[in-house]
Amino acid sequence: DADVTQTPRNRITKTGKRIMLECSQTKGHDRMYWYRQDPGLGLRLIYYSFDVKDINKGEISDGYSVSRQAQAKFSLSLESAIPNQTALYFCATSDPGTFTDTQYFGPGTRLTVL
Amino acid sequence: QKEVEQNSGPLSVPEGAIASLNCTYSDRVSQSFFWYRQYSGKSPELIMSIYSNGDKEDGRFTAQLNKASQYVSLLIRDSQPSDSATYLCAVNSYPNNAGNMLTFGGGTRLMVKP
If I label A85, which of A3, A12, A22, A112 is the partner at 20 to 30 A Cα–Cα? Predict the structure, then answer.
């Protein structure tokens, strides 16, 4: 079984709709992240959480919100989706107990906003 | 604004050749450097990390770091068609005890031709 899972894997929605992307992990990591990826722009950080009570905005948080329901679950919401939020979304986790604090990525959610 | 720059490519090399991928970064206090491989439509996968000036070798991969020049590179020896992917450079500008906040470059697309 995958260590980091994301649901749904693909989603098509309409402008103005509310949508939630979910991330679950079995790695036991405290730190979780949400990124979006657009062609040629690499990965950009939306929100990150270092533990259940610690949530922080990243580089591009406008139009997004998050919820850390448990150590293992971190959800990303688009309150009112717009077409320029069409992108590939990745969840990632990392373990601060290791020197490298390497980030491990989920399989991604491809979101299309019409 | 911290920046990580990569040539978007595509970089085309024949099978068996050495592929050289380059990355420059703007933040002089950057401490950790990572190379991720991403196949089309898939999630990034960590292939190398480097923290000290010089070379670090792992199998066919060699990462090179020059902090004075703010330059990190990845060499892939004996390139195979299966190495065809986008390679993302990521830079961590914080000490690990303050969190592993990565800034990603836009990626270089590598094509290895049989």
Answer: A3
Q: Which of the residues B25, B34, B43, B91 would you substitute to probe the A interface, choosing the one with the greatest number of A C-beta atoms within 10 Å? A: B43
Closest-CA residue to A31 (of A59, A60, A58, A68): A68
Identity of the residue in A41, A103, A104 whose CB atom sits nearest the CB atom of B102:
A103
For chain A, list residues whose CB is within 8 angstroms of any CB belonging to chain B: 31, 40-45, 48, 50, 90, 94, 96, 99-108, 110
Query: pLDDT tens for residues A4-36?
Result: 999 999 999 999 999 999 999 999 998 999 999
In this complex, the residue of B44, B46, B106 whose CB is nearest that of residue A41 is B106
Q: What is the pLDDT of residues B10-20, one digit of tens each?
A: 999 999 999 99
Q: For residue B38, give the nearest of B83, B98, B91, B95 by alpha carbon.
A: B83
Cβ neighbors of A39 (< 8 A, separation 6 or more) are: none
Which alpha helices (DSSP H) does A17-92 contain, by range?
A: none
